[in-house]
Design goal:
183 residues, mainly alpha, two-stranded antiparallel sheet, 2 strands, 5% strand
């Protein structure tokens, strides 16, 4: 059991150890489907990364008076930025930075290959049209949300998760940075 008086460095090392030993949800047909809490965490990471572009830049460029026209322009701008971000990253990398951090990847449902550009665009348009579809995916065996069903995609755990590839290096650097002895 964890000591209640652990310092920040010890808690951070415990977190990295939990990342390394994290077991994805049960395999269905040999495939590890991305669970909803990690998918939602990935979306939050992406929104944090986009925060300066979504909020700060429009605040500086648009006049401060709140009007219906300003609201429409701001919402359109935000959807456009989020759309470009999602479409480019999912099409080029198979995942957004948030999904990469969590270890998820978006693939075609039948071939498990990278998505086509049309699949990526359809997936995003379905995502902004049916955001409650994420809840629907929580109850499905393969965790496919409505936007996944519409675009014929599925979110899986990437076999080469970054924290599995770099765990020992990260842990050594963290120990050195925190002046902690190796165990």
């Amino acid at each position: 059991m964890d000591k209640p008086n652990k310092n920040f460095a010890e808690r951070l090392l415990d977190f990295t150890t939990r990342l390394q030993t994290h077991k994805p949800p049960r395999s269905v047909d040999g495939i590890l489907y991305g669970d909803m809490h990690n998918r939602i965490f990935a979306v939050l990471i992406d929104l944090i990364l986009l925060l300066p572009v979504l909020i700060i830049i429009p605040t500086l460029l648009l006049p401060p008076a709140m009007s219906m026209q300003r609201t429409i322009i701001l919402n359109s701008y935000q959807y456009l930025v989020i759309g470009i971000y999602n479409i480019i990253f999912i099409y080029k990398c198979g995942a957004t930075p948030g999904k990469i951090f969590v270890g998820l990847k978006v693939v075609d449902v039948t071939t498990h290959a990278e998505l086509s550009l049309s699949q990526t665009i359809i997936r995003f348009l379905a995502y902004i049209t049916f955001p409650l579809g994420m809840i629907f995916g929580s109850f499905k065996r393969n965790k496919r949300s409505w936007h996944d069903l519409i675009a014929d995609t599925v979110v899986i755990y990437s076999p080469n998760r970054w924290y599995k590839r770099h765990y020992d290096v990260l842990k050594a650097k963290l120990r050195k940075f925190l002046n902690m002895p190796d165990k």
